[in-house]
Every structure is written in structure tokens, then in C-alpha cells.
Amino acid sequence: MAVVLLFIHVLICIALIMLVALMQQKHEGISGIMGGMQSVRGIKGMDEGMRRIITYTGWAFFVSCIVNSFLS
Questions:
Q1: Which residues contact 50 (CB under 8 A, 6 or more apart)?
Q2: From its phi and psi, is residue 26 left (phi > 0), alpha (psi between -120 and 50) or beta?
Q3: Which of 2, 35, 42, 44 has the smallest C-beta neighbourhood within 10 Å, fewest atoms?
Q4: pLDDT in tens, 4-40
């Protein structure tokens, strides 16, 4: 059981890193390096949706840290 939860924790970590790196902050991060992503992500509501997903992923990371610490 602990191995499965650790695997889920690692997946959440990777997802959180990728989401933060792809978040558009005045052309910084990976999305600024690629350049052509603005045509895909140029919608104003997309930025708010991305922040919401990052917030939920952050909370999932927090909960998985607490659960893994109790099971260790």
C-alpha cells in the first residue's frame, strides 16, 4: 500500500512541476521558450483554469505528503 501511495505522490510531483513550468507568466518558463504556444493558450479564461488546476494539484501534493509521512 505504501508503495502505491508513494507512486501516486511521485506522479503528483511530476504533474505539479510540469503545470508550474507551463504556466504563462509574462512569457517566462517553458511556454515562453517555445514561443508558439500563445496561439493555443491565448484565451483569457485558460490562465484562470490553469491556476485552478495548479491549486488543486498543490493541495493533492500537500495531502499526499501528510499521508506518506504518517505511513512511513
A1: 19, 22, 23, 24
A2: left
A3: 44
A4: 999 999 999 999 999 988 876 655 555 555 555 554 4
Distance CA(3)–CA(42), nearest Å, equals: 40
- Residue 20 Cα distances to 4, 53, 67, 68, angstroms: 24, 10, 23, 23
- Report whether pLDDT(48) > 90: no
Burial of 35 (0-12, 13-18, 19+ CB in 10 A): exposed
pLDDT at position 34: 55
pTM of the model: 0.69
